[in-house]
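anyone seen this seq b4? input:
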Amino acid sequence: MADDGTDARTAVMGRIRRHLKVSDGPEDEARRAAVRSRLERHARNLVPARADGDDAHRLALFKTMLERADATVTEVATPDEVPQAVAEFLRNHNLPFQIRTGADTALAALPWDRVPTLEIGHGAAEASDQASLSHAFAGIAETGTLALHSGQDNPTSLNFLPENHVVMVDADRIVGTYEDVWDRLREVFGEGIMPRALNMVTGPSRTGDIEQRLFLGAHGPKRVHVIIAGSGKAR
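predicted toks r here
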């Protein structure tokens, strides 16, 4: 049987425990109990006051912070308008009428027949893809951040490989703070269960390493376009 790394992991953890002088006695049990208590309490960190407010406040703040992060935003009254909003984004940037998406059921249920010339690819992103479409798990108002968890529904490669990333966010999934996202994850996945990865994306990829000049698209998309669906506002 192939070595799955368990023996090596056990050896490494054993060396760490010996270095920390951790034993299996009462002191170790007290330490474990303290860790369990901390994890079970879900204690919140300092939360910015700007995240407080009703749904309208969170929506307005989310849009403001997105634009500060160099993302663009479109609001549509219902999810059924998302296909036209995607087509409009591609058209405005002279991009091929092609987009790649995962197996997300909400995206699949949209009326794509309203844009019959749009070619939709499915699965993980490929090097030739110029645009991708994801369905965000949540939008975070305090920083204009998108929470995107990994999985077949929304492969992580869609977030980083194409130069243009379009993200649909349901208006009722816009939360105030990062702590609210963790609460929602526990509600959806269950206590102690998490997706393999949760990416927090705030605007396009950027760097200022070269001569302190801001460059977009350095390590990922150079454009992030967010479509807020179900806000009740038409485009």
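The chain has a mean pLDDT of 89. The first strand starts at residue 72 and ends at 76. kinda curious what u guys think
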